Q: What sequence folds into this?
């Protein structure tokens, strides 16, 4: 069964780039990690991004610019820290199958990068705002 990330209803973006669909396993692998990177002061934003609209996935069309950029930042941060200890522990199940381990990590990383590219197409995406936000908070990767 698949899950969807609906990014935007912006008609200036081609339909294929307004959303992203993948398996539930890959989706949960990515977005459970992204959710964990939100800090306590971003709780309202996290709740807005992960609000249950009755669809099987995440709907970002209705989040404001600030929240959208926080979501992007947390998505990028989570990717930088992937694979994490949890994933590496799970992959220990395949000690004699490095190609399977590498393939799994590379597959998720590829899809994660595709998500970031689609988020960058949205008019709410603002790299300067994100960098200012990170700087103000004293965040480093």
A:
């Amino acid at each position: 069964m698949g899950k969807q990330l609906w990014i935007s209803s912006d008609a200036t973006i081609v339909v294929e780039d307004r959303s992203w669909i993948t398996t539930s396993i890959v989706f949960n692998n990515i977005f459970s990690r992204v959710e964990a990177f939100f800090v306590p002061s971003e709780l309202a934003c996290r709740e807005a991004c992960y609000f249950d609209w009755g669809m099987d996935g995440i709907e970002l069309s209705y989040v404001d610019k600030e929240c959208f950029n926080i979501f992007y930042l947390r998505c990028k941060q989570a990717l930088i820290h992937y694979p994490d200890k949890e994933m590496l522990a799970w992959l220990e199940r395949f000690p004699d199958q490095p190609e399977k381990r590498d393939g799994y990590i590379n597959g998720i990383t590829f899809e994660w990068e595709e998500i970031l590219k689609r988020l960058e197409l949205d008019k709410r995406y603002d790299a300067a705002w994100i960098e200012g936000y990170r700087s103000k908070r004293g965040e480093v990767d």
User: Anything to note?
Assistant: The longest strand covers residues 2-6.
